[in-house]
Amino acid sequence: MKKKLVVLINEQTRNDSYLDFLRLKFDINVVNFENGKNKIKDIDLALFTGGEDVDPAYYEESKGRFTSCNKKRDQIEHKMFMSSLSAPKLGICRGSQFLTVMCGGKLIQHVEGHGIGGTHPIDIVYPFEQKVEITSTHHQMLYPFNLPKENYLMCAYSTNHRSGVYLNGNNENISLPEDFVEPEIVYYPKYTSLAIQGHPESGVLSTDDKMFFLDYIEKMLKL
What global pTM score does this model have? Predict the structure, then answer.
């Protein structure tokens, strides 16, 4: 019997591919977040999905020339994040970037080599070590490195640096820290938030691959 989960989503950006992914492992009951109009309680998971870039104003940068935002969505999902502070949170693709920003991190506003489709290898280093394949379809990148070390866990990163370009809001290459890796999965313990940059729900991945990521999500978020 599948474990039951009550999953909160933004009703305006509902995408059943993410929900069908969760249904492979869980019996989910979906609760729509109606822009703060409904009272949110007894949520097992708040889900933040893919889409437009996050407004750089949330991490105190100007908007770069490659950045395209949906400010209304940012405002709604900011309310959704704040209403679900006590619940585990999962962000995929744009959702991972949004959670990174909400947890105090930043974003690199433009990179290359991650918008090619298909899959590429990543190295999982927490809570176990394993190399797996995941999709690569993004032009922005998680940047938790401005946070104190105790505020984030680098769980997985690209096996190889795929980009030679890392632009900020001024369209300039940033200075990378010595320990820089290209983040793929980051966990923010203070907010019980798991940020997955790739698309574990993608049809490119096999059912076995999807189940691996679902098991990983369950373990990390203690669902």
Answer: 0.95
